[in-house]
Automatic annotation (TrEMBL):
Pfam families, A to Z: Glyco_hydro_18 (PF00704)
Single Gene Ontology MF annotation: chitin binding
EC number: 3.2.1.14
Similarity-based family: Belongs to the glycosyl hydrolase 18 family.
Keywords: Carbohydrate metabolism, Chitin degradation, Glycosidase, Hydrolase, Polysaccharide degradation, Secreted
Gene Ontology biological process terms in this record: chitin catabolic process; polysaccharide catabolic process
Protein's cellular compartments: Secreted
Name of the protein: chitinase
Domain GH18: 1-183
Substrates-to-products reaction catalysed: Random endo-hydrolysis of N-acetyl-beta-D-glucosaminide (1->4)-beta-linkages in chitin and chitodextrins
PANTHER family in the cross-refs: CHITINASE
Listed transmembrane segments: none
């Protein structure tokens, strides 16, 4: 990251990678997906930034966009959650009801598309029982539907990417409905 590691998005060797996953967006108590660090994400000025009028993105989001202009095949995904969000039960709340899943999906798609991302990575570590596994599948389906509706409403034929960070260890992946995640 940009803080302790002092690793900037413009340092990513984009000629050597196909995808960059930008982590993490937060999940609020009502299931809304939002920036976890607005200053770093869209406000922080880089040394090569010029002051522009309007509501412009700066920060890491702008730097990732500039990387995409240098490598048109580069895909960027916004990752939501991670260990911290998972251990505090934010995914459980966001995935619990049809209403909260819709709120999560709508806000995640809005944030990802506003930031020029090519998709979304859902990093729920990890569903721990059959109910949560089912809720994760429903959450992913809601996100897929929201991306497809966004594309249709904006006359886009682009198929936004949707990924899920899943565990490698059997003690966790056996609790997931992996087959249900496959459309």
């Amino acid at each position: 990251g940009i803080y302790d590691a002092k690793y900037e998005p413009q340092q990513i060797p984009t000629n050597s990678v196909t995808h960059v996953i930008y982590a993490f967006a937060n999940i609020s108590s009502d299931g809304t997906v939002q920036s976890s660090d607005r200053w770093a994400d869209v406000q922080r000025r880089s040394t090569n930034d010029t002051e522009e009028k309007g509501n412009n993105a700066y920060g890491c989001v702008k730097q990732l966009y500039l990387q995409k202009t240098q490598n048109r095949r580069l895909k960027t995904l916004l990752s939501v959650g991670g260990w911290s969000a998972s251990k505090h039960g934010q995914f459980n709340k966001a995935a619990a009801t049809d209403e909260s899943r819709k709120r999560f999906a709508k806000s995640a798609v809005k944030l990802a598309t506003d930031w020029g991302m090519d998709g979304l990575d859902v990093d729920w570590e990890y569903p721990s029982n059959p109910t949560e596994a089912k809720q994760m599948v429903l959450l992913l389906k809601e996100c897929r539907d929201a991306f497809d509706k966004y594309a249709a409403a904006n006359n886009q034929t682009y198929h936004f990417l949707l990924t899920a960070a899943t565990p490698a260890g059997p003690e966790n992946y056996k609790k997931m409905d992996l087959a249900g995640m496959d459309p």
